Amino acid sequence: MPLSAQPPGSAEPYLLTASLDNARHLSSLLRAVHFQDHATCFATVNGLRVTVEDAKCVQANAFIQAEIFQEFAVQEQTVTFRINLSVLLDCLTIFGTSSLPGTSTALRMCYRGYGYPLMLFLEEGGVVTVCKINTQEPEDLLDFDFCSTKVVNKIILQSEGLRKAFAELDMTSEVMQITMSPDKPYFRLSTFGNAGSAHLDYSKDSDLIEAFHCNQTQTNRYKISLLKPSTKALALSCKVSIRTDAQGFLSLQYMIRNEDGQICFVEYYCCPDENITEEM
């Protein structure tokens, strides 16, 4: 494959090199977190994490494990840079978003370090395109500190259950209210839109729920404008883990299986709009 060789003029070693036989595996995951123009990329020996934030209220992370790549090499403990995600996606899809049957766009990605551009070498049908994308100084990001010991409630359900909720609930509502409880209603999603209140309940024994670990009753509201970007990841996913901590911070972790059956994850963190106590 033309992209397997070291790119020309590379006397200085690259801190990050990564190769993919199919660039769509990367571009589809990046589109799932593309609700702001800029993203911060973190590369470690475990793989690549791409983080997008908005107004210090919502954060999205796309995790692409090293095993997804045909080649993945990092020369430092962590390689970090900020990049224009819109430009990166345009480059990854420079040959179009849908290839002919049996063809795919091969990708080699290289980064020399601070001050250097991210280099993309894309090849399809014998045609190679080289893209250089300027990188920027990384900005400080929120640490939602969602370690397992701080999780109060956790539910894992098939994604079709959450897709149904987003389709049926009134999205003219400013907030979505999420109730998680060891007792009835167990798991309830509510909206308060122009047509009035709407509720969708899931029993802990529902066929859609694969795991139910609720320790205490929590009812929190979240701005729908902050939740809507996560529907991109929801559309690609097969399962979703919904977690809350004691402060009502929300984690939505989507499990996504690519065309080759490999598993990746996209996670959204969202601050609560308000904490409320409700009589059940």
Automatic annotation (TrEMBL):
<dbReference type="GO" id="GO:0006281">
    <property type="term" value="P:DNA repair"/>
</dbReference>
<dbReference type="InterPro" id="IPR003021">
    <property type="entry name" value="Rad1_Rec1_Rad17"/>
</dbReference>
<comment type="similarity">
    <text>Belongs to the rad1 family.</text>
</comment>
<dbReference type="GO" id="GO:0000077">
    <property type="term" value="P:DNA damage checkpoint signaling"/>
</dbReference>
<protein>
    <recommendedName>
        <fullName>Cell cycle checkpoint protein RAD1</fullName>
    </recommendedName>
</protein>
<dbReference type="InterPro" id="IPR046938">
    <property type="entry name" value="DNA_clamp_sf"/>
</dbReference>
<keyword id="KW-0227">DNA damage</keyword>
<dbReference type="GO" id="GO:0030896">
    <property type="term" value="C:checkpoint clamp complex"/>
</dbReference>
<keyword id="KW-0234">DNA repair</keyword>
<keyword id="KW-0539">Nucleus</keyword>
<dbReference type="InterPro" id="IPR003011">
    <property type="entry name" value="Cell_cycle_checkpoint_Rad1"/>
</dbReference>
<dbReference type="Pfam" id="PF02144">
    <property type="entry name" value="Rad1"/>
</dbReference>
<comment type="function">
    <text>Component of the 9-1-1 cell-cycle checkpoint response complex that plays a major role in DNA repair. The 9-1-1 complex is recruited to DNA lesion upon damage by the RAD17-replication factor C (RFC) clamp loader complex. Acts then as a sliding clamp platform on DNA for several proteins involved in long-patch base excision repair (LP-BER).</text>
</comment>
<comment type="subunit">
    <text>Component of the toroidal 9-1-1 (RAD9-RAD1-HUS1) complex, composed of RAD9A, RAD1 and HUS1. The 9-1-1 complex associates with LIG1, POLB, FEN1, RAD17, HDAC1, RPA1 and RPA2. The 9-1-1 complex associates with the RAD17-RFC complex. RAD1 interacts with POLB, FEN1, HUS1, HUS1B, RAD9A and RAD9B. Interacts with DNAJC7. Interacts with RHNO1; interaction is direct.</text>
</comment>
